Amino acid sequence: MSGGTAEDRRVADAVSGHWVDRLAPRRLRPFLRLARVDRPIGWWLLLLPCWWSAALAATRAGAPYPDPRHLLLFLIGAVAMRGAGSTYNDIADRDLDAQVERTRSRPLPSGQVSTRAAAAFLVGQALVGLAVLLQFNGVAILVGIASLLPVAIYPFMKRVMSMPQLVLGLAFAWGALMGWVAVFGALAAPAFWLYAGAIAWVVGYDTIYAVQDIEDDEIAGIRSSARLFGPRLRLAVGLCYGLAVLCVALAALGAGVGPVGFVGIALFAAHLGRQVLRLKERDGQGALTLFRSNRNAGLILFLGLAADTVGQGWPG
User: Which of 20, 54, 215, 236 could pair with 66 as two cysteines, CB 3.0-4.6 Å apart?
Assistant: First the structure.
């Protein structure tokens, strides 16, 4: 790792003024950046399908509210596994990241962290994730372990397929299965519908994210859905988001969600529609803002589903 100046260097697309850059010990800052702690949107987007699934499972089970213990475990697990996945991705992509303006300031391509230190850090974060996973039932543990397959292959997909966002969707949407299986010890149609909807949501928002890198990706030969869709970008993202809303609605119907939950789904759909209307093909900064707004979209959906569960469980 290099000296103090490098350790103080903020990653290009991190949140400005984040506590990592102001308060964390200098020697830890590159590792916190490697885990994307300074970019919390990542763990939010990993977490939210878990919470949606927990709310749907609570409704189907007739519980008065989503299990708070499960919600907390999913939060800890999302932060740990987001960090582990990002570290793994950066190890695999360190040469490509050095060719892209937005990513060359990351700890590995900039030389702030060695590959060996990053690998050790990856193992530590993965062990935290494993400790969280072991708190669930046996079937949930197996389902959670299976998520490692799309996580493992994703970094290499941008070299061989035009839409690597689809593989990212398989990984980031996995929580849509976990909330359900944690309650029932088995999977059912609503969980699969929710998973399909979450995959479509991930492909949509990560296509928006990829708009930032179109020019650099063209030079480096990196493939992305933003490059693939080109002038049809808004239509493609709109179709992804429309499919996401449809699948989430089918999952809600199968789980017995009531009117309050469907109000949440409608507000979720409206938020996604607003993103599509504001999307521009070569507006990188605008794309980053729209991408980050998906935290709010996902929270709107969760609050609607959770409120419906509470409402159905309220004594009549």
Answer: 54
